[in-house]
Amino acid sequence: MVVAGVHLYWGIPRFTNYASIGSMPDPRPLAFVLSGHAIMIAITLVVAGVLDARRTYLPGMGLVLVHILGYVAWHTVFDHRIGHTPGTTSHSHAGTQIWSVPGTVLDHLLNSPLALLSKTTELALLVLLGVLYVRSRRG
Length: 139
Hints:
By secondary structure, this protein is mainly α. It has helices spanning 2-21, 28-47, 57-75, 101-110, 113-138.
């Protein structure tokens, strides 16, 4: 729920703003809103007994990996530019080399409490889903 909540908290205001101007220059708000709702729907269906929890482990792990790898890519490979005109970002990582990727990501996490919360809870969820998946395969 925390992962979904963080994504909805960040995504909804930005998505609403973009929708009101009729332009979506940054794909993240839409992705975050869809992802947050998908998580909430999956949780609701499992709790209601409509969906077997075991069927959510692998897709859940995949979604969490997309969140984590997407964050890394956004701040390194894409240099904050998907959907943006070059030079319109708040800062740049010009000259970022592959060996500085962990430093760049860590710098962003330490400068954003919400991002740090998001990635920490995502990693915890990834581990939890992995453990649950392994346990479900054993018995």
